[in-house]
Amino acid sequence: MKHLLATASALAMLIGLATAPASSEEKTAWRLFVSDHAASVVHALDMETGKTIETFDVKAPTSLYRSDSGRSIFAVQGKGDVISVLSSGIAFGDHGDHGDIKVEAPKLLDVAFEGKKPSHFVDHDGDIALFFDGEGKARVTREADILDGKPAIREVVTDAPHHGVAIALGDDVLISEPNTDKPDELPTGIRVVDRAGATVGDIHACPDLHGEASSGNLVAIACAEGLLITSGDGKIELLPYDKALPAGKSTTLVGGRGLQYFLGNYGPSAVVLIDPKSEDAFRLIELPTRRVHFTVDPVRAKFAYVFTEDGQLHRIDVVAGKIDASLKLTEPYSMDGHWSEPRPRIAVAGSRIVVSDPLKSVLHIVDAESFKQGDDIALEGKPFNLVAVGGSGETH
């Protein structure tokens, strides 16, 4: 009997050890990926230390985009006819009551998408749509397949090369319709294409189409007369600009995180907050000078940020619909001249707001809670486009 009790006790201990949670600790990791305005490089920085982890060589100066998951960074090289992909090295796992974080070295993947003059990148629920202006084609694939090194590519073709965009929504792809009379001008509408390549329904008119974003389950596409709005249920409806707005239109949109709204440009010296579900859908915010760049805060959902040509960073309270703080960061960056000249860009990396200052070879760091400037990070060359990836989770 004593032997049986001892065996039972030992078995219970083994079961307890097997079912006990593995030891874990909370970890926070944020990385900033920075492209150069003139050089064909992408820098990966550890935002906890401000140090450069790695610098990756690419084919041409690049625009950077992050996937929704943050696991991959897309380097769109319009003058290099290629899109390169980097693994951010940060991945999260959802376990219901908590999330895990896995941190590895960032790396340049052995995956590239070649084509003439790539332009727009759009991620929707892990479906990646890459549009190539010089071909009038979109290549659609899955982020998971890219990270596995085996992307299956589905091509969607339009009638002519043009500055367009595509959005993958499940089996369907929303793709821009070129101006057949003047293909060099902006698209005139959106066509829905199913997995078999057939057009679904009529073309949705959208003159001067330029700019798209997602917020929650809504997708918005900017047009001359308003925004096309869809939730991916097959319905695409026009939200016309409010008649109280001055003459103008949005050509760039970003989607709110945590709160469902869109932030768009509207004329050179204003931005507009857009809530498609509100009776007062458009709220115009006038800026002190011309706008350079803007973004939303993915951590503090109440806030968005706008940088203006006088060197100021402005914090917008999107609930109140007004600028509630401003901070002088750089010398003036005039918006006169070509649109592609080196000018500051904004990214939010956890508790830090980062503003690039390409003419001074520096990144300005602002504490997101106090909205006060912290220590700068020097970075050689002309640091330009910024994307941030990171968060907190448990490591085992």
UniProtKB/TrEMBL annotation:
It comes from the Bacteria. Gene3D superfamilies: YVTN repeat-like/Quinoprotein amine dehydrogenase. The keyword Signal applies. SUPFAM superfamilies: YVTN repeat-like/Quinoprotein amine dehydrogenase. InterPro entries: AztD-like (IPR047697), Quino_amine_DH_bsu (IPR011044), WD40/YVTN_repeat-like_dom_sf (IPR015943). Keywords: Signal. Residues 1-24 form the signal peptide. NCBIfam families: AztD (NF038015). This is Uncharacterized protein. It comes from Aminobacter aminovorans. The lineage of its organism: Bacteria, Pseudomonadati, Pseudomonadota, Alphaproteobacteria, Hyphomicrobiales.
